[in-house]
Structures are given as C-alpha cells and as structure tokens.
Amino acid sequence: MTLKAIIFDVDGTLADTEDGHRKSFNKAFAESGLDWNWDVALYDKLLKVTGGKERIKYFVSDFLKGYTKPENFDDFVKHLHAVKTGHYTAMLREGAIPLRPGIKQLINDARKAGITLAIATTTTAENVTALLEVGLGKDWANYFAANGCGDIVPHKKPAPDIYNWVLNELKLAPQDCIALEDSYNGLRSALAAGIKTYVTTNPYTHKQDFADAEAVLDDLSDLPHFYSMIGLRA
Ligand code: XBP
Ligand code: MG
Q1: Is residue 164 classed as helix, strand or coil in its secondary structure?
Q2: Residue 152, SS3 per DSSP
Q3: What does each C-alpha distance from 127 to 121, 144, 182 come to in angstroms?
Q4: Atom 17 of ligand 1, residue of closest alpha carbon
Q5: Cα(181)–Cα(87) distance, rounded to whole angstroms?
Q6: Of the residues 21, 26, 151, which should be mutated to test ligand 1's pocket, given the most ligand atoms within 8 Å of the CB?
C-alpha cells in the first residue's frame, strides 16, 4: 500500500487540548450561574461521550441528581456550548495550547512528500481554526485537502461518519490512508471506516483499549521511527 493521505484527529492528537476544553466548560457554567464543576476525574468519565453539546447532556442525564431541565433544554445547551467555545478559542488564541511533539514537522514532511492531509474531528470548525492559526500560521487551511469538523455529520465518533465524510471529500479508498488518533472513540471511528490507525496517547486516554491500533506511541517525538512504520520517506 502506498500512503496517499494522513487523516488527523484534533483534540488530544494535534494538541493536548482536553484540559483546556474542561476549563472552558467550567468557565461557561460559572458565567451561566450554574454550580457545575467538572474536575479532572469527572471529565475523564464524561469523555466517554464525544461532542461538547452531547457531553453536557450526558452529564445532566447521568451525573446530575434532582436537576430540572429548563423548557428549551436544547437551546440552553447550545448557548452554554457557544459560551464555552468562546472561552476555549480565546485560550487558544493566547497560545495556551501548543501542538504536540513532532506534529508540525510531520505535517511539513508529509506535504513535501506529496502526501494529502486531512482533518477528522468531533470538535467545532472554529476551535480547529483557532488552534491551527496559532500552531501552523494564517494559511494553515491550505495544508489540508479536507477539514471534517463536528456537526457536519449526524453521528459523532465512535461512529465512522466523520472519517467516511473525509474519505469521500478526498476521493480516496480507506486503504490508501492512515489515521492518527488519541482515544478509544477515535480509534473505533477510524477503524469502522476501514482506515489503519496509529494512536498517540495522552493523560486522559493512556489507559484506554487500543488493541486494534496499528501502533500505540506516547507521542511523535521519534519521527524517524514513525516514518519507518508508515512508509514516509522525508
Ligand atoms: C474530541 C471531542 C470534542 C472535545 C470538545 O474531539 O470529543 O468534543 O472534547 O470539543 P476529537 P467541542 O475528535 O478532535 O478528539 O466542545 O467543540 O465538542
Ligand atoms: Mg481526539
């Protein structure tokens, strides 16, 4: 198989963002007069559900006792999530969350080698823009042939929808591509789309089940080793 494309997950893969998300959720809750506080241990459990809006609903349904939902609960959650996204993008634009080791070099080397790049993420497009404008520069979008984000598909990870959407945009077969992920949900999503998947772990995901991954790495600080695995000649 000649590697034609690398499809990147975002949160936890391009950058260690999840604790930034967690803090931004808490800022939104406080700003909305809610006494909800997601500590690391609780957020670790809530990460079972992908998507910020879906995660808030999961928290309300499975972790909150005696809470009465407001009438327009869906709109309430959408607003809460929009407030959270405002805090999160502000954090990113301050440069609070850098790209993970090896990511920028991999992107540059892959582009030089003529390999197509794409994004398949559960997070919002505005979060991807804020992260990569800082991490890769203003013309970051030109590096990616497809940018699959959040709500453009009906079912978020672990469903394969976002990876299938990207494959369709790239007009490539799954066997021509590899995926780079950080989580069990992300691995399941990419595998369900038929894509060989490499995992780099982080503090939130390192104990998850990655048995079906091609390889599991702490990070991409040893790029020559990773390139030998994926057949990239830099
Ligand atoms: C990880 C997610 C996202 C983030 C929060 O996305 O599940 O929901 O936790 O971001 P990825 P939003 O697929 O990149 O790992 O609040 O924007 O959803
Ligand atoms: Mg992820």
Answers
A1: helix
A2: helix
A3: 10, 16, 17
A4: 123
A5: 25
A6: 21
For the segment 118-139, what is each residue's pLDDT rounded down to a tens digit?
Answer: 999 999 999 999 999 999 999 9
CATH number of the domain where residue 158 is located: 3.40.50.1000
* Cα separation, 173 vs 171, whole angstroms: 7
Asked whether residue 217 carries a pLDDT value surpassing 70, the answer given is yes
Ligand 1: centre distance to CA 149 (Å) = 9
Q: What is the pLDDT of residues 158-193, one digit of tens each?
A: 999 999 999 999 999 999 999 999 999 999 999 999
Task: Give the confidence band of 197 by pLDDT, cuts at 50, 70, 90.
Answer: very high
DSSP 99: B
Point out the residues that are catalytic: 9, 11
SS3 123: coil
How many domains, in total, are found in the chain? 2
CA 71 vs CA 59, 68, 74, 76, 77: distances in Å: 17, 9, 9, 9, 11
Mutual angle of helices 52-62 and 73-93, in 10-degree steps = 130
Cis-peptide into 158, omega within 30 deg: yes
**Domain's final residue, options 58, 93, 128:** 93
Is 24 in the same domain as 13? no
Question: What phi-psi label fits residue 233: left (phi over 0), alpha (psi between -120 and 50 degrees) or beta?
Answer: beta
- Give me the helix-helix angle, 184-192 and 161-170, nearest 10°: 50
Residues with CB under 6 A from ligand 1: 9-12, 18, 21, 50-52, 121-124, 127, 157, 183, 186
